[in-house]
Amino acid sequence: MIEFNPIHHLTIFNIKIQVWGLLALISIMLAFFLVYKKVKKEGLDTGVVYDLLLISIIFGLLGARLFYAIENGFEDFFYLHKGGLSWYGFLLAYLAILVYLKIKKLPFRYLEIIVIFLPLAHAIGRIGCFVNWDDYGIYTNLPWGIKVNDDLPRHPSQLYESLSNL
């Protein structure tokens, strides 16, 4: 059993930064950088990558919030500071990218390149969920069970998912 104290936020220069949000931002920026490099290497228009990043962020967040609300209720839909996003938001971003590429008559190779780096971004985000101790697994007696506060040890399902993505 491993004792663990979740880290919900860091304070830097008196600014409170949510750890999960920071890791999500890092994952998005890293994926964007890698997509950009791959698009450039393949001789495609790198300017399109900026449009796709904006579309992904807007529709990904909207979809993530929408799926969370479907699962948990719509009462606090507009209160993002209270948390509540679902990984399934990528589905709405995916559809928005498909529509954009179709309207602009651009090759679907852009989407294929994005999908290559999606698991890496997801892996980093799930590490953020572990550090925040969000979406933890079922109880376990295994030696790597994670014990937080007075709870029984649980599987670190966030890390399992992160490793499976890598």
Query: What is the general shape?
Result: globular
Biggest sheet overview: 2 strands, parallel
Fraction of residues in H or I helices? 55-70%
- Distance between the amino and carboxyl termini: 25 Å
Describe the structure.
The chain has 166 residues and is mainly alpha-helical. The protein is built from five helices and four strands. It has a two-stranded parallel sheet with strand order 1-4. Strands 2-3 form a two-stranded antiparallel sheet. α1 (19-41) packs antiparallel against α4 (109-132). The protein starts with a strand and ends with a helix.
Topology summary:
Elements: E1 2-3, E2 9-12, E3 15-18, H1 19-41, H2 47-72, H3 90-103, H4 109-132, E4 146-147, H5 157-165
Parallel strand pairs: 1-4
Antiparallel strand pairs: 2-3
Helix pairs in contact: 1-4, 2-3, 4-5
Summarize the structure.
It is built from five helices and four strands, in the order βββααααβα. Helix content is 58%, strand content 7%. It has helices at 19-41, 47-72, 90-103, 109-132, 157-165, and strands at residues 2-3, 9-12, 15-18, 146-147.
